[in-house]
What does this fold into?
Amino acid sequence: MSVLISPSLLSADFGNLNSEIDLINESEADWLHIDVMDGVFVPNISFGFPVLEFVNRRCAKPLDVHLMIVEPQKFINEVKQIGGAIMTVHYEACTHLHRVVQQIHAAGMKAGVSLNPHTPVALLEDIIEDVDVVLLMSVNPGFGGQKFIPRILDKVRDLKAMIARRHAHALIEIDGGVNLETGRQLVEAGADALVAGSFVFHSEAPLETIARLKQL
It folds into this structure.
């Protein structure tokens, strides 16, 4: 199976949002990654549900919704209503993570759990069999265009071993600093899905860039 590619809407040109989403529809991308930020959990604010309602109407790809917010469980229904196929919450933001994962599944979505760069994957040992996606942040969350943290490669290998050991089915997704070189390293380490923002939307040929990422 080729690697899944999820371009990040955060890096799109919002002055030309229609054409940016049409580009994604035409591309080989598998998902569209959406970062929702509240200015509390991370030091930035992105966009809210009215914008995402428009994105859902326009986008033909499954929406990969990543909530970088406090108390993400309060917005499960809203994410479902705007067409979320995957809802990813942060381990660091959920006191009762297993309950939140159950609620996401009950709403009919796939459940993802994200870890910040400093959070060890060993903390997922008791929930890995219940989640569909583990999103490892390979930059500090909050802003696009940051430099890839190489230590994440070891985390991918450790997580892949855990998934195999527990006979789990979770996909490993990586967000931050992804390009052709880091993407190749991540796929070799065991990553299943790559989020790419500025590398896709700021490239001279985004369709070709996505196609090249798919070939890693």
The CA atoms of residues 68 and 210 lie 25 Å apart. The longest strand covers residues 84-90. The chain is about 35% helix and 20% strand.
